[in-house]
Amino acid sequence: MIVTITAPRRLRGTISLPGDKSISHRAVLLNAVASGEATVTNFLVGADCLSTIACIQALGVRVERHEDMVRVYGMGLRSLREPVDVLDCGNSGTTLRLLAGMLAGQNGMFAVLTGDASLRSRPQHRIVAPLRALGAWLDGRDQGNRAPLAVRGAHLHGGAYDLPIASAQVKSALLLAALFGDGPLTLTGRTDGRDHTERMLAAMGAAITVDEPTIRLMPLDRPDALQPLSLRVPGDPSSAAFWWVAAAIHPDAEVTTTGVCLNPTRTGALDALRAMGAQIEVANQRDEGGEPVGDVTVRSSQLCGTVIEGALIPRLIDELPILALAAACAEGETIIRDAQELRVKETDRIATVAAGLSALGAAVEATEDGMIIAGGGNLRGTTLDSYGDHRLAMTWAIAGLVAAGETVLHGAEAVGVSYPEFWNVLGRIRE
Ligand code: S3P
Questions:
Q1: In CATH, what number is assigned to the domain containing residue 326?
Q2: Which pLDDT score, from 0 to 100, does residue 223 have?
Q3: What pLDDT is stored for residue 221 in this prediction?
Q4: Could you tell me if 97 and 195 lie in one domain?
Q5: Within this chain, do residues 252 and 184 fall inside the same structural domain, yes or no?
Q6: 301: Cβ–Cβ under 8 A, 6 or more apart, which residues?
Q7: Which helix (H) or strand (E) holds 79?
Q8: Nearest Cα to 185, choosing from 104, 99, 95?
Q9: What is the pLDDT of residue 299?
């Protein structure tokens, strides 16, 4: 799909966000092995989370969906059935990595996990090596580093693992495997990725303790040990960030996003935008689905350059493409470093973001682990491609709201991975 975007005079509106992608995945995966029925509302009806539902159904669990309401009929820890075909995770790294962990402990079960060309190119050694250390049997292409990944469920034991990268997918794969082990799992090191799995496991009755950076999980001692968890999924801050940046860089804008998940492991983009001088107001803070949420309003702002690095990176990793656009529109230089993980996302987002911003007329230098962005604005519309990456598609759409002339986006349908309503919302807030 090709979409042409031009700059509107004003941006105004209140946006109720789709459910958080990470929490939607976990709500289905964890409830699938709980004992009883759970109802999940404001579920993200994006392609990634639908891949998770399809895989869980292929494992014999009844899951029903009516629009954004999902009912999962968990039958307990040992209820998964061997799938009769390969499990297609589509574009979704979270589906593949978390499922690999969960299936590693299903004694004797054989399963093959695969996905689209992007997912098959992404590194899996990061989960394969530590899962093998717990006694799991996994293998895949490229010496176990790429999908298709084959898993033969095995008897797992507990253990200790020092996480070398701040990946919530790796952390969660290990926690899900350890539920089925015969001893405690202790995680140390870079456990600072998003903590939705830990929160949800605790709410479902698992014996998990977090004493940063150490996480300790006891295996479940009974097949019915996990209680089902019904919840309303909070709004996705990674989707909200597109509207926050749109409002901050447009000269006449005020946009409110309601019900945003404000879990501190996810609010790095708000911190970075504040450091850049964005006008941000957070109101109506409350708790929803075991997570802090609130309404976030952003107005047209004079942004300045900043440095985004270190412990901030995992708290905004998915927002870096849109923050790079904000940086291109700011006064002065922005440096992004310690973000080498961007190279192994749905695309190599250091290369693709730097190329797109350069095509729009920004001065950007791609580095090994980030970017140096000169700032100064004056973007010119051009022809861009999403390369199938949902966050690139949305970043270039927002660029089109401030660039001179027309921005023509190829592969605009990629937004469906995490935000199917994106183009409708964009149409609604333009004036
Ligand atoms: C996610 C974790 C992050 C993030 C991804 C979703 C999750 O990936 O980029 O979009 O739901 O656990 P990593 O674990 O690779 O950092």
A1: 3.65.10.10
A2: 83
A3: 84
A4: yes
A5: no
A6: 247, 248, 249, 276, 277, 278, 279
A7: none
A8: 104
A9: 98
For residue 222, the model assigns a pLDDT of 86
Q: How close is the Cα of 97 to the center of ligand 1, in Å? A: 10
Atom 4 in ligand 1: which residue has the minimum CA distance? 318
Candidates 144, 148, 104, 113; CA nearest to 128 is 144
Query: Which pLDDT value is given to residue 413?
Result: 98
Q: Which helix (H) or strand (E) holds 44?
A: none
CB proximity list for 76: less than 8 A, separation 6 or greater? 33, 34, 35, 223, 224, 226
Domain shared by 143 and 285, yes or no? no
Give per-residue burial for 39-64: e unless 16+ CB within 10 Å, then b.
bbebbbbbbbbbbbbbbbebbebebe
Identify whether residues 317 and 204 lie together within a single domain: no
Residue segments in the chain with a per-residue pLDDT below the cut of 50: none
Are 118 and 246 in a shared domain?
no
**Domain residue limits at 62:** 21-232
Number of compact structural domains in the chain: 2
Q: Please indicate, yes or no, whether residues 265 and 179 belong to a single structural domain of this protein.
A: no
165 and 271 fall within a common domain: no
Domain end: 191, 210, 232, which one?
A: 232
Q: What angle do CA 427, 428, 430 make, to 5 degrees?
A: 70
Check if 318 is active-site. yes
Q: Both 326 and 281 in a single domain?
A: yes
Which residue carries 């504040």 as its tokens? 274
For ligand 1, say whether the CB of 317 is within 6 Å of any of its atoms.
Answer: yes
Question: Ligand 1 centroid vs 54 CA: distance in angstroms?
Answer: 20
**Residue 313: its pLDDT value, please?**
98
What is the pTM assigned to this prediction? 0.98
